[in-house]
Protein backbone atom coordinates (compact mmCIF):
# COMPACT_ATOMS: atom_id res chain seq x y z
CA UNK A 1 0.00 0.00 0.00
CA UNK A 2 1.25 3.43 -0.87
CA UNK A 3 0.44 5.03 2.50
CA UNK A 4 1.02 8.73 2.95
CA UNK A 5 0.56 9.60 6.59
CA UNK A 6 0.01 13.24 7.51
CA UNK A 7 0.87 14.63 10.91
CA UNK A 8 -2.58 16.19 11.30
CA UNK A 9 -5.99 16.24 9.63
CA UNK A 10 -5.32 19.91 8.89
CA UNK A 11 -2.13 19.18 6.93
CA UNK A 12 -3.88 16.43 4.95
CA UNK A 13 -6.72 18.79 3.99
CA UNK A 14 -4.24 21.53 3.13
CA UNK A 15 -2.38 19.15 0.82
CA UNK A 16 -5.59 18.17 -1.01
CA UNK A 17 -6.64 21.80 -1.32
CA UNK A 18 -3.24 22.79 -2.73
CA UNK A 19 -3.43 19.95 -5.24
CA UNK A 20 -6.87 21.18 -6.37
CA UNK A 21 -5.46 24.69 -6.64
CA UNK A 22 -2.59 23.49 -8.86
CA UNK A 23 -4.93 21.43 -11.05
CA UNK A 24 -7.26 24.42 -11.45
CA UNK A 25 -4.38 26.31 -13.09
CA UNK A 26 -4.44 23.83 -15.98
CA UNK A 27 -5.47 25.02 -19.43
CA UNK A 28 -7.59 21.91 -19.96
CA UNK A 29 -10.74 21.03 -17.98
CA UNK A 30 -9.83 18.64 -15.16
CA UNK A 31 -12.21 15.77 -14.33
CA UNK A 32 -12.30 14.84 -10.65
CA UNK A 33 -14.48 12.19 -9.06
CA UNK A 34 -15.48 12.72 -5.43
CA UNK A 35 -16.29 10.08 -2.86
CA UNK A 36 -19.47 9.90 -0.84
CA UNK A 37 -20.03 9.17 2.81
CA UNK A 38 -18.98 11.40 5.68
CA UNK A 39 -15.19 11.65 5.23
CA UNK A 40 -15.15 14.15 2.32
CA UNK A 41 -17.31 16.56 4.35
CA UNK A 42 -14.14 17.61 6.18
CA UNK A 43 -12.59 18.57 2.85
CA UNK A 44 -15.71 20.40 1.65
CA UNK A 45 -15.87 22.44 4.87
CA UNK A 46 -12.17 23.23 4.68
CA UNK A 47 -12.41 24.42 1.06
CA UNK A 48 -15.53 26.48 1.70
CA UNK A 49 -14.09 28.24 4.76
CA UNK A 50 -10.57 29.05 3.63
CA UNK A 51 -8.90 31.22 0.99
CA UNK A 52 -9.21 28.22 -1.37
CA UNK A 53 -12.89 29.08 -1.87
CA UNK A 54 -11.76 32.02 -4.00
CA UNK A 55 -8.17 31.15 -5.02
CA UNK A 56 -9.06 27.88 -6.76
CA UNK A 57 -10.15 28.49 -10.35
CA UNK A 58 -13.35 26.43 -10.11
CA UNK A 59 -14.11 27.08 -13.80
CA UNK A 60 -11.47 24.52 -14.75
CA UNK A 61 -12.62 21.75 -12.42
CA UNK A 62 -15.39 19.30 -13.27
CA UNK A 63 -16.80 17.24 -10.41
CA UNK A 64 -18.24 13.75 -10.64
CA UNK A 65 -19.06 11.13 -8.02
CA UNK A 66 -17.83 7.60 -7.44
CA UNK A 67 -21.25 6.58 -6.19
CA UNK A 68 -24.62 7.90 -5.12
CA UNK A 69 -27.43 6.66 -2.97
CA UNK A 70 -30.77 6.33 -4.80
CA UNK A 71 -32.42 9.19 -2.91
CA UNK A 72 -33.41 12.76 -3.78
CA UNK A 73 -30.72 15.48 -3.70
CA UNK A 74 -32.39 17.03 -0.63
CA UNK A 75 -32.13 13.79 1.35
CA UNK A 76 -29.39 13.90 4.05
CA UNK A 77 -28.08 10.61 2.58
CA UNK A 78 -27.37 12.21 -0.80
CA UNK A 79 -23.65 12.46 -1.52
CA UNK A 80 -24.26 15.31 -3.96
CA UNK A 81 -26.58 17.04 -1.48
CA UNK A 82 -23.86 17.07 1.20
CA UNK A 83 -21.33 18.51 -1.21
CA UNK A 84 -23.77 21.15 -2.46
CA UNK A 85 -24.63 22.38 1.05
CA UNK A 86 -21.06 22.36 2.32
CA UNK A 87 -19.12 23.46 -0.76
CA UNK A 88 -20.95 24.36 -3.96
CA UNK A 89 -23.32 26.79 -2.21
CA UNK A 90 -20.24 28.74 -1.03
CA UNK A 91 -18.17 29.01 -4.21
CA UNK A 92 -18.61 30.24 -7.77
CA UNK A 93 -18.67 27.24 -10.07
CA UNK A 94 -20.56 26.82 -13.36
CA UNK A 95 -23.57 24.46 -13.14
CA UNK A 96 -22.18 22.61 -16.15
CA UNK A 97 -19.11 21.58 -14.13
CA UNK A 98 -21.20 19.62 -11.64
CA UNK A 99 -21.97 16.14 -12.89
CA UNK A 100 -24.15 14.64 -10.24
CA UNK A 101 -25.68 11.18 -10.25
CA UNK A 102 -29.44 11.79 -10.12
CA UNK A 103 -30.38 9.61 -7.19
CA UNK A 104 -34.06 10.48 -7.59
CA UNK A 105 -34.25 8.82 -11.03
CA UNK A 106 -35.12 5.21 -11.72
CA UNK A 107 -31.79 3.42 -10.96
CA UNK A 108 -31.80 1.38 -14.19
CA UNK A 109 -32.24 4.55 -16.28
CA UNK A 110 -29.83 6.65 -14.25
CA UNK A 111 -26.99 4.14 -14.42
CA UNK A 112 -27.21 4.32 -18.22
CA UNK A 113 -27.69 8.09 -18.34
CA UNK A 114 -24.68 8.74 -16.08
CA UNK A 115 -22.48 6.39 -18.11
CA UNK A 116 -23.46 8.35 -21.25
CA UNK A 117 -22.66 11.66 -19.56
CA UNK A 118 -19.22 10.30 -18.66
CA UNK A 119 -18.67 9.08 -22.22
CA UNK A 120 -19.67 12.46 -23.67
CA UNK A 121 -17.59 14.61 -21.31
CA UNK A 122 -14.50 12.78 -20.08
CA UNK A 123 -11.58 12.44 -22.54
CA UNK A 124 -11.13 8.90 -23.82
CA UNK A 125 -7.77 7.15 -23.57
CA UNK A 126 -7.28 3.61 -24.92
CA UNK A 127 -11.00 3.34 -25.61
CA UNK A 128 -12.20 4.26 -22.11
CA UNK A 129 -12.99 7.60 -20.42
CA UNK A 130 -10.08 8.52 -18.19
CA UNK A 131 -10.56 10.66 -15.09
CA UNK A 132 -7.70 12.90 -14.01
CA UNK A 133 -8.24 12.12 -10.35
CA UNK A 134 -10.60 9.78 -8.52
CA UNK A 135 -10.84 10.44 -4.80
CA UNK A 136 -12.30 7.47 -2.97
CA UNK A 137 -13.31 6.68 0.60
CA UNK A 138 -13.21 3.33 2.34
CA UNK A 139 -15.88 1.88 4.59
CA UNK A 140 -15.06 -0.09 7.75
CA UNK A 141 -15.82 -3.29 5.76
CA UNK A 142 -13.29 -2.38 3.04
CA UNK A 143 -15.81 -1.21 0.45
CA UNK A 144 -15.10 1.72 -1.78
CA UNK A 145 -17.58 3.74 -3.86
CA UNK A 146 -20.49 1.23 -3.72
CA UNK A 147 -18.24 -1.72 -4.48
CA UNK A 148 -18.89 -4.02 -1.55
CA UNK A 149 -17.04 -7.14 -0.35
CA UNK A 150 -18.24 -10.26 -2.11
CA UNK A 151 -20.20 -8.24 -4.68
CA UNK A 152 -17.42 -6.93 -6.89
CA UNK A 153 -17.52 -7.95 -10.51
CA UNK A 154 -14.01 -7.12 -11.68
CA UNK A 155 -14.92 -8.36 -15.19
CA UNK A 156 -17.82 -5.89 -15.58
CA UNK A 157 -16.91 -3.64 -18.51
CA UNK A 158 -19.78 -1.16 -18.20
CA UNK A 159 -18.93 2.22 -16.70
CA UNK A 160 -21.61 2.16 -14.00
CA UNK A 161 -23.74 -0.39 -12.18
CA UNK A 162 -26.48 -0.63 -9.57
CA UNK A 163 -25.28 -1.82 -6.17
CA UNK A 164 -27.15 -2.83 -3.03
CA UNK A 165 -25.83 -1.75 0.37
CA UNK A 166 -25.62 -5.14 2.14
CA UNK A 167 -26.99 -4.07 5.54
CA UNK A 168 -29.74 -1.60 4.64
CA UNK A 169 -30.63 -2.92 1.17
CA UNK A 170 -30.39 0.68 -0.11
CA UNK A 171 -29.85 0.88 -3.87
CA UNK A 172 -26.89 2.86 -5.12
CA UNK A 173 -25.36 3.76 -8.46
CA UNK A 174 -21.62 3.35 -8.64
CA UNK A 175 -18.71 3.58 -11.00
CA UNK A 176 -17.37 0.11 -11.81
CA UNK A 177 -13.92 -1.12 -10.75
CA UNK A 178 -13.05 -1.21 -14.48
CA UNK A 179 -13.67 2.53 -14.92
CA UNK A 180 -12.03 3.51 -11.62
CA UNK A 181 -8.88 1.53 -12.40
CA UNK A 182 -8.44 3.43 -15.67
CA UNK A 183 -8.00 6.74 -13.81
CA UNK A 184 -4.72 8.65 -14.04
CA UNK A 185 -4.66 8.84 -10.28
CA UNK A 186 -6.60 7.32 -7.35
CA UNK A 187 -6.40 8.76 -3.86
CA UNK A 188 -8.10 6.94 -1.00
CA UNK A 189 -8.99 9.45 1.68
CA UNK A 190 -9.17 7.61 5.00
CA UNK A 191 -9.50 9.59 8.22
CA UNK A 192 -10.54 9.00 11.82
CA UNK A 193 -10.08 6.35 14.50
CA UNK A 194 -13.01 4.28 13.20
CA UNK A 195 -10.86 3.37 10.14
CA UNK A 196 -7.75 2.26 12.08
CA UNK A 197 -8.81 -1.39 12.19
CA UNK A 198 -9.52 -1.73 8.47
CA UNK A 199 -6.33 0.15 7.59
CA UNK A 200 -4.41 -2.35 9.74
CA UNK A 201 -6.17 -5.31 8.07
CA UNK A 202 -5.61 -4.27 4.47
CA UNK A 203 -1.96 -3.58 5.20
CA UNK A 204 -1.18 -6.79 7.07
CA UNK A 205 -3.43 -9.55 5.70
CA UNK A 206 -3.08 -11.45 2.49
CA UNK A 207 -6.56 -10.76 1.21
CA UNK A 208 -8.53 -12.17 -1.67
CA UNK A 209 -9.84 -9.59 -4.14
CA UNK A 210 -13.36 -10.20 -2.84
CA UNK A 211 -12.68 -9.45 0.80
CA UNK A 212 -11.67 -5.78 0.81
CA UNK A 213 -12.27 -4.15 -2.60
CA UNK A 214 -10.45 -0.96 -1.56
CA UNK A 215 -7.25 -2.96 -1.06
CA UNK A 216 -7.34 -4.13 -4.66
CA UNK A 217 -8.88 -1.40 -6.79
CA UNK A 218 -5.94 0.61 -8.03
CA UNK A 219 -4.94 2.66 -11.06
CA UNK A 220 -3.71 0.15 -13.68
CA UNK A 221 -1.28 2.57 -15.27
CA UNK A 222 -1.45 5.52 -12.90
CA UNK A 223 -0.76 6.45 -9.31
CA UNK A 224 -2.62 4.96 -6.33
CA UNK A 225 -2.15 6.36 -2.86
CA UNK A 226 -3.74 6.22 0.59
CA UNK A 227 -3.92 9.59 2.36
CA UNK A 228 -4.14 8.80 6.08
CA UNK A 229 -4.42 11.00 9.14
CA UNK A 230 -2.77 10.12 12.49
CA UNK A 231 -5.97 8.46 13.82
CA UNK A 232 -6.59 6.11 10.90
CA UNK A 233 -2.93 5.06 10.81
CA UNK A 234 -2.48 4.47 14.53
CA UNK A 235 -2.47 0.62 14.33
CA UNK A 236 -0.12 0.39 11.35
CA UNK A 237 3.03 -1.56 12.19
CA UNK A 238 6.29 0.44 12.01
CA UNK A 239 7.39 -0.98 8.64
CA UNK A 240 4.14 0.15 7.00
CA UNK A 241 4.32 3.74 8.23
O1 LIG B 1 -21.04 4.36 1.72
C1 LIG B 1 -20.09 5.01 1.51
O2 LIG B 1 -19.05 4.95 2.34
C2 LIG B 1 -17.74 5.03 1.89
C3 LIG B 1 -17.01 5.45 3.11
O3 LIG B 1 -17.83 6.37 3.79
P1 LIG B 1 -17.47 7.09 5.14
O4 LIG B 1 -18.78 7.63 5.63
O5 LIG B 1 -16.90 6.06 6.05
O6 LIG B 1 -16.54 8.19 4.82
C4 LIG B 1 -17.66 5.98 0.73
O7 LIG B 1 -16.42 5.79 0.12
C5 LIG B 1 -18.72 5.77 -0.29
O8 LIG B 1 -18.64 6.69 -1.33
C6 LIG B 1 -20.02 5.95 0.39
O9 LIG B 1 -21.13 5.88 -0.43
Automatic annotation (TrEMBL):
CDD domains: 6PGL. It catalyses: 6-phospho-D-glucono-1,5-lactone + H2O = 6-phospho-D-gluconate + H(+). Residues 9-221 form the Glucosamine/galactosamine-6-phosphate isomerase domain. It is an enzyme of class 3 (hydrolase). Keywords: Hydrolase. Gene3D superfamilies: 3.40.50.1360. GO terms for molecular function: 6-phosphogluconolactonase activity. Pathway: Carbohydrate degradation; pentose phosphate pathway; D-ribulose 5-phosphate from D-glucose 6-phosphate (oxidative stage): step 2/3. The keyword NADP does not apply. InterPro entries: 6-phosphogluconolactonase_DevB, 6PGL, Glc/Gal-6P_isomerase, NagB/RpiA_transferase-like. It holds the Pfam family Glucosamine_iso. Hydrolysis of 6-phosphogluconolactone to 6-phosphogluconate. Belongs to the glucosamine/galactosamine-6-phosphate isomerase family. 6-phosphogluconolactonase subfamily. NCBIfam families: pgl. This is 6-phosphogluconolactonase. The gene is pgl.
Amino acid sequence: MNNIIFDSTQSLLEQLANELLRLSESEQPIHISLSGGSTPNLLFDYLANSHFSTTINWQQLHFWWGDERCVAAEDPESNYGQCKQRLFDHITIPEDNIHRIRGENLPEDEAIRYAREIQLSVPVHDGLPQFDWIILGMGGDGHTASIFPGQTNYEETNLTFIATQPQSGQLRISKTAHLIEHSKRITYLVMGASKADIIYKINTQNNSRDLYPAAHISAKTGLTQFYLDPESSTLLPKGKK
